[in-house]
What we know:
The protein is of the alpha+beta class. The chain has two domains: 3-81 and 99-196, no CATH class; 207-324, no CATH class. The chain is built from 13 helices and 13 strands. It has helices spanning 6-15, 30-41, 55-59, 102-121, 130-139, 151-157, 207-211, 229-235, 242-248, 257-260, 288-292, 297-304, 313-324, and strands at 3-4, 20-24, 70-77, 90-93, 140-143, 162-163, 169-170, 178-185, 188-189, 217-219, 222-223, 251-253, 285-287. The strands form five sheets. Strands 2-3-8-5 form a four-stranded antiparallel β-sheet, sandwiched between helices. Strands 12-4-13 form a three-stranded mixed β-sheet. Strands 1-9 form a two-stranded parallel ribbon. A hairpin with a 5-residue loop joins β6 and β7. The longest helix is centred in the middle third of the chain and has 20 residues, at 102-121.
Amino acid sequence: xxKLESKRIKELAFTVxxxxxxxxxxxxxxxxxESYQKWLANNYHGEMEWLNRNIERRTNPSLLIENAKSxxxxxxxYYQPNILEIPEEHGxxxxxxxxxxxxxxxxxxxxxxIYKMMSIIEPGLDVNDKELREKSREYFRWFVDxxxxxxxxxxxxxxxxxxxxxxxxxxxxxxxWIFLAEIISSLxxxxxxxxxxxxxxxxxxxxxxxxxxxxxxxxxxxxxxxxCISYLTIEKPSDISEELKSKIGKLIFGCDxxxxxxxxxxxxxxxxxxxxxxxxxxxxxxxxxxxxxLQSMEDFLKLTAxxxxxxxxxxxxxxNAKIVLGE
Length: 327
């Protein structure tokens, strides 16, 4: 079986548009599995019941593809600055959700990378050939965050960064403004030297913990999602308590506070990926009164289709709009 070179894989990853690429092995990371199980046992996942399923698959890449030998970790920088104060009757949208749905952007880039790797394995096959696409599944399976995989831990192992006190992966070049994806392969790939691993630390800094309005960061690297504003405004399907409502303020979809105060993000670089910019989606703000006037799913999809804002559905986006308006 052919052995691929990590240097060549990285070159291909950058060619298709990824900002980060690291390669590691698929062995279970015991501390990651233990931490995840403890997080679930404490019910920090809230009503996200899917996170409590397929625990073995989430923590063992070898269960995701037969004869797994390599894990390719990929990253995309999505940072864009806040350019305006929040207008009256508007709510702010988290940076990651202002443009196109990142899942779709990552899907295209990841598939392009896989087809380029296939052209090395099976020279002469056309990248548009159905046979190539089918055969690629023998060697590669890819995932983004809706897939069953503890991706941040493997990103650390692959040298992309370290996990900060807010639970985010922090990279030396891009800070924590990174989308992650992974390709698990049955092919052996040369692994980067340990000296290239991107270690770092938060030290005694507690700015993210102190800044969180809802005290969602329980301890170093542990987030109680049931208190997190991103969870409350995006994932929580039921009503939000009055206590937590009062702390959401003008955030209508998601929250960037713990990242905004992080000193590692002082080096943030504006994304080169136009798909993530406001002009490609709903933008930095939503008019809360306009949201409340939406009458149907058709109206909702006219506004949100192709963006992450389809996630909470109309009822919950209107719930968020009422919170922004103080209702």
